[in-house]
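FW: tagging you since you asked about this chain on Friday. Here's the raw sequence from the shared folder, copied in full. Didn't touch anything.
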Amino acid sequence: MSKYYSISELSEILNSENISKLKISNPTLRYWEKEFKQIKPKFINNRRYYSIKQVELIKLIRHLLKDKGMKINGVKKLLNLSNYELDYKESFSLKNHFYKEIFKNKTKKILEKIKKIKHGKKNSY
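HL: got it, structure written out here
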């Protein structure tokens, strides 16, 4: 069974990462849901739940709006393009830059854990 996150959990996830320094609130997430047709939470007992795929999409939207300074209409157009079209139209893909940053951050965390293990320190999760 797939894991789903409540809107509060999603907000915590977005705000705990260092990719964007700006905090994302629950009302902001509800607003984005109205603006971006791609965000489709599952409703259970009138509560929103987001799949892992939806979480990744919202992280991308946050990155484009907050880190790259794009406007909502620009992000809408970008999300409607396929990766091939995006790479073809722009030599530096904004989507790919986002995923590169995520990969870089995950790699950095793994390297820090390896250094701790090498120096005999216990791993803290």
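FW: The mean pLDDT is 81.
HL: agreed, and The radius of gyration is 17 Å.
FW: great, closing this out.
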